[in-house]
Amino acid sequence: MPTKTLRIPTPDGQADAFAAFPDDGDRHPGILLYMDAFGLRPVLEGMARELAGHGYYVLVPNVYYRHGPTPVVELPEHIGEEERPGLFAQLVPLVEAHTTERVLRDADAYLTFLTDQPEVSPGPVGVMGYCLGAVLAMRTATAHPGRVAAVAGFHPGALVTEAPDSPHRRIPELAAEVHLGLAEGDLTPEAIGELNDALDAAGVGYTTEIYPGTVHGFTMADTSAFDPAALRHHWDRLLPLLGRTLNGG
C-alpha cells in the first residue's frame, strides 16, 4: 500500500499530512480523514491504510500544524487512564486554538489539495473523523455541500452546543449522506434529538447510532477506550456508506 508524507499549503502555513492509496495506477475517490484530539499517529495511519485497501485515496492532515509538525504532543505507545490528565493539559489549548474560522480555512485548503492529487478521481469526496475530527468533518461537509457526498463521525466531540456556531446549526445546509456512531454518553438524548432534527431539515439520508457498551474513543486501538467489536461495527457502517456515495467506491 503506497503511502506519502505530504505538506498541504494553507492560508496559515504548511500542514503536514499522511496519505495512503491503492497501488494500481488508477484514480480513486478521495477521503479526507480528520484525526482525533490525540493527533496524527500510527493508529490513524493504519486506519488510513485499511481504508485505502478498499479503493480510496485517504488524506490525514495534522490539524495542529500551526503549533508544529507531527508529533505536536509526544504520546505513549498506549494511552491509558493514568496518561490522560497530563496529555489533555497539553492538548486542550491546541483544541481551543482551533477556532471555527481556522477550521473552515483549513477545510477549503484540504479539499482543494485532495481533489488536485493525480491519484484522486473526479467527483465528490467523503469526509470523516473521530472525536474532535467528527466535528471537523461535519463543519467541512456543511461548508462544502457541493463537494462532499458522505460524512461519517465516530465518538464525536461537541456537535451540539449552545454556541452560535455550534456545528449542528449548519446541518440544514448539508447535502451528504451521514453516519454518526456514538459511544454511550457521548451526547444526551436531548442533543441527539436536536441533531436528528437538523438532519431531518437537511433532507439527507442519515443514521445516528449508539454503539452498545462503548466509551468515548472506542475505535482507537492505542487507547484504553478501544473496543474491537465496535471497531468492526464502525467498518461495517462506514464502507457501505462510502460505496453508495462515492464514484467508483
Task: Note down, in words, how this protein is organized.
With 249 residues, the protein is α/β, with parallel strands linked by helices. Helix content is 35%, strand content 21%. The chain is built from 6 helices and 8 strands, in the order E-E-E-H-E-H-H-E-H-E-E-H-E-H. It has helices at residues 42-52, 84-97, 100-116, 132-143, 189-202, 228-245; strands at residues 3-10, 13-20, 30-34, 57-61, 125-130, 148-154, 177-183, 206-211. Helix 3 (100-116) packs across helix 4 (132-143). The chain is globular, with a radius of gyration of 17 Å. 46% of the residues are buried. The model has no long low-confidence stretch (mean pLDDT 97).
Beta-strand residue percentage:
15-25%
Specify the number of helices: 6
**Rounded to an integer, what's the Rg over CA atoms?**
17 Å
How many strands?
Answer: 8
Shape: globular
**Sheet with most strands: strand arrangement:** 1-2-4-3-5-6-7-8
**Which stretches of 5+ consecutive residues score pLDDT under 50?**
none
Which percent range fits the helix content?
A: 25-40%
The SSE string, one letter per element, is EEEHEHHEHEEHEH
Report the structural category. alpha/beta
Largest sheet: number of strands, sense, barrel closure? 8 strands, mixed
